[in-house]
Structure formats: structure tokens, C-alpha cells
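call fold(seq) -> C-alpha cells
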Amino acid sequence: MKFFSFHLMPWPYLPSDYDGPAWITCPNDLYDPARGHDLYNRYLDELEFAEQLDFDGIVVNEHHQNAYGLMPSPNLFAAALARRTHKVKIAVVGNALPLYNPPTRVAEEYAILDVLSGGRLIAGMVVGGGPEYYSFGINPAEARRRFSEALDLIVEAWTKPGPFEFNGEFYKLRYVNPWPKPLQKPHPPIWIPGIGSVETMELVAERGYSYTGIPFFHFEVFEKNYSLFRRIWVERDRKPDPEALGWLVPIFVGETDAEARRRFEEHFWYFAHKLLDGVQINPPGYTSAQSAMRIRSAMSRFMLSVRTWEEVESGMYAIVGSPQTVAEKLALGIEKLGVGHLLGLFQLGTLPHEATKANLELFSAEVMPALRREFPGGPTWPEG
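ret:
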């Protein structure tokens, strides 16, 4: 069982009277660079702190033109972390491949990160969220084809001796010959997240990568999607492998269940009702009709629609409570999903620095050991 600390680097200072979306059109005069300076350094400290607590990895990601996550260039943060950490894996989930032209830029920057970190990079490759296609003016109907072709180009750039020519539908390069190349061979591990589209699951299973479900849905949505992924994986003649699956979920640990809720709830609602507003954009053509219907059917169970704490708890939108409660709930989820990677969001919304550190410390001291005892040989995939 591998444990990762995932950070979104949110903007916690949206005015209380602001009721617009946090994505695409959220006015950027609401951003204060002086506060941003303090936030970036604070958030990097929180990620680095996870190494001191013996987490297996830390995670950053990419979003644009929003208050939800202030990492339009996650590779910059990964580079800073590579110099300030020494053991933890550094997962960049990911680079949104259709936004890069040519995608060899991703191959080069990821190779730098892998070499700089001594082979600790996990290379996330993402299609990019629906809002990104409005921010970049890219035709969403081309998203999947661009992603697949860019992924082919990057993997070839890492594994095929250069120079060579690449002649695709979207990317045509006379010379592909990147310097440097990754330290890990044949290339760094590749993680691809998904929101439930069958196309993403099929691609991950076909290539033997790892799949992480997008969070903030009712746990039953995860169960349905992960069950489908496991079936697709096995149909590709692959052996069940918990490390092919990751579960991303907000986590807060307190001394007691009541204390944990008291310290966490207001920060959760800021995230759920302010920062998620506007994210549920699925542009026309972004997925197949089949996948669009799957995603649409799940949207009524998206965190933005949740209104009571009872719904939060029953749907496992966040795992909150005492160390014993959190360990029990996470163990249940790990068992039902068959995941080998647990990615915790230990800072959410407006959660302050000291509360975030205390959360990480309690999780490391009491929850991680309990889960390792619960799964001494690692998790297994459930039957069916």
C-alpha cells in the first residue's frame, strides 16, 4: 500500500459575497500576488513535510484560469520539490497533453524532472478538464485523438533512439531527438486519471499504465467506475494489479470524530460550493456519446450538489474523523475498490497551515500504520 499527499494549491480568499464560478471567468483581480507569494511557499512546505512523515509520494497537478488550483505549470513546482526532497516519489498528475504543441516539450521537461530527482518522477498524462478547452481555445472534439497521439510521441521520444521522424495527424516533426532522456527505464511510471470515460479506461488497460479516478463523487460512482476498469483490465489479458488503481479523496484526521468535523467542515464547504463551481463543464465532443451519458448520470452525485454533512459522510465525499474512524473508512474503501495507491487531499479549501500539518501528522502516526497492518501483503482486487 502506497500513500501520497496530493495538493491542489487552492485560492482560499474568494470574497464571501462572490457567487460566480471559480473557473474560466472568475475575475483575476481577485488574485493578490503578495498573498500568492506566501501561499506558494506555504503549500510547498506542506508537500515537503510529507517526506518527513514517511509518505511514499507527493502529488501536484495542472489547471488554468481558476481559483480552484494555482498550478498552471506543475512542472515548476515539481522542480522545486525535486531539489528539496530526497526520497518521496514526485507525481505530476499531470501534464494536459493536448495543451502542449509540440508535446515533446512534456517529454523534455519530464525527463529533466526524472534526472534531477534521481528517478523519482511519476509522469501523469491527462486529457485536461473540460474548462481547459475554453481557456486554450482548443476544439474539444479533438481532445482524445490529440491526447493519444501526443502520448505516442512522448513515449517514443523516451524509448526510441533519435533522431527520428514523427508524422501524425496533429504533430509533424522532422527531428525527434530529445536531450535529456529519463533516468528510469524504459520510462517513468505513467498515471492517467479519468472521470469515468470508457475511452480512458481502455487506453490505460491496453498500455498497462495506472488509473486514478477523479474525486468529489459519491463513493458508489467510484465503485461503478473501478469495477468497469478492473473488467476492462482483465479482458486485456492482464493480471489483477492494485497498483494499476489509485483513489484520490479528501482526508481530515482529528483527535475525535466531533473535533475533526468541527475543525474541517467550514473549509470543506468553501471548497465544495465555491471552488468546484464551474468545473462541471463537459464541452461538446469532449467524450464519446457513451461516456458523456455515463458522466452525465454521475453529476447528480457530484460534491457540488451536496448540502448536508450527513450526505458527505454517507457518500464518503471526504473521510473525516478520529484516527480509528478514518482508518476503518479508508480500509473499507481500499478493499471495495482494490486500489494500491491512496492519494489524500490533506489540505482543502481554506484549511489553514497548522491544521493541515496536524492532519498530516496524525494520519502518518496513526492511520498509515493501521492501514499497513490491515493490508500486510498489500490490497487485492475484489471479486466481480
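The first helix runs from residue 33 to 52.
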